[in-house]
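Re-running the complex after MR caught last week's input typo. The corrected sequence lines follow. Everything else is unchanged.
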Amino acid sequence: MSQLIGRRLLSLVFVIFSITFLTFIVGYLAPGDPILVMMGPRRDPVLYASLRHQYGLDLPWFQQYFNYVGGLLHGDLGVSYRYQGRSVNDILGNGVGVSIFLGMMALVLSLLIGIPTGILASLRQNSWFDRTSMITMLALFSIPTFVMIPILRAFNYFVLYKNGLPSLPPAGWGTPAHWVMPVIVLAAVNMGYMARLTRSSMLETLQQDYIRTAHAKGLPQRQVVTVHALRNALLPIVTVIGPSLAFVVTGSFVVESLFAIPGVGFIGVQAIGQRDYPVIQGTTVVLAVAVVLMNLVTDILYTVLDPRIKAAG
Amino acid sequence: MALSEATQPLPAAVVRRRARRGFWWRFSRNWLAVVSLMLAVLLIGTAVAGPLLYGVDPNYQHYTAINAWPSADHILGTDSLGRDTLARIMQGLRVSLIVAFYVEVLNIGVGATLGLVAGYRGGRVDNVISRLADMLFAFPGLLFAILVAAVFGQAVTERFGGIGRLLLVAGSLALVSWPLMARYVRSQTLALKERDFVGAARSIGATNGRIMWGHILPGVVGLIVVSATLDVAAVVVSEAVLSLLGLGIQPPDPSIGQMIRQAIDYLETNWLQVFFPSFVLTLLVLVFSFVGDGLRDAVDPQSATNTSEP
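Corrected-run output:
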């Protein structure tokens, strides 16, 4: 067990190093001189040199990298090039909470609908429910996020709003009504993925000998499914929760900018428009590390659920 | 008939021809893949010849037809600036496919080559290549591509114009797709290099280069083609995401992602303007996924039983 934790921590360090190092290198190679941008039309070589020194840009690259990581370890993401005196933390600030909230709601929704749908479909294999739900889930999985958005908005406008039915606000953030569409869109891909994975995992588990034994003992179907089959069938689902967040991260850029939600993705897209590199870097690091930590949580969850891992590790 | 075939060894050319016929035969049994392949050819043909045949400038603003519904003048209508939708879709399709083409050239050229070398050489070379791939795997989804395209976009466009931008988009997408290709090819190479025919080749004095390119590569080609085809479906979406975020082809030149982004704001006025590009994009994704699935089943018949499940 301790060996397993040690290996996990080592790979965690490597992953965090990769994220910060590559992000730093891209920022280091970024075209344009941030000091000149900061100084605007003024051309004062003394001020230029002192600013360069102040921001540590006169140091060799590896020292700059150490300073960058040192800052990150203190939770300091650097200083904005665009807004003088504002730190990246300050700019990303509220966005982090909004994005995590949105991402978690989407994840929970995709699990809450995807897993039960997959289970029901597997229990009634090749039935009417199985076929229609799996085709729907395949569609949810393969329709790109930004195609999903106009579909939902068109439904909201033409079907609900036009007929005087209660409808949702087309964009914005604030009330729970604003949450509905973005969360559905963000959850769609994972929901389809989870449902189909659950179904095939359940089907495989239900064919195992111990399930037949449980049936042979005369246990009721409900107990066989919930106690015996589910626990094993859900193991593969737990392993993909972490990696599946990658969809949520890429999706959050699209969803947040199209629904005007003030999350990290939205702020990142704005920073892209303003070429505010430290903010773009900060967005990248925050999102990537969030996924890494989530991966760690699912790994720990996995060892709790599956005692065999502890023995093997 | 079957008996005489079994007893007499067939000439190598016949065996090869049969193997090839077997592949297309297996592929043709999958009607979804066949239809998708025809549609893919149609889409590529439209992207190549469509703009020439249609002859409408995709950037020209027809001020008398703003947000127009389909008509004889504009077969698919116009957008909020009066630009012809069909002309823009065909141009955007061209952009999507060109980007996908460049990405796969890089993906195969870099990813497959590194995977082959890593798998065959092993040791330190393998370690360096695999760690490099792992570093890029650390970023979820498109995050690293977004970062690279965002930081270098402006400067590249200023220096090299639209073509430079196109290459940057392709390059940044290839950056996130080559590690997976390398991983696939590496593991297949690891399996192949233990096989007897490699030992046989070495025993007659074949060089490492010859074994890699002449003996192992043919065994990996199927895998490379399948994963590149499936990757096209992903790349088309990724390119649209980058365009949507303002990182792709710059306006006024059309790309499908950008068209969707602009048309969403006019959904209530003219929903067809968002429908057409979305439809074409979804079609493109589905078509390449189905062709990829069909190729996978045809290359590796054993996998055919598994593909009905996700």
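None of the earlier attempt is carried over here. The interface with chain A takes residues 134-136, 138-144, 146-148, 150-155, 237, 240-241, 244-247, 257, 260-261, 263-264, 267-268, 271, 274-275, 278, 281-282, 285-286, 289, 309-310 of chain B (CB under 8 Å). The first helix of chain B runs from residue 2 to 7.
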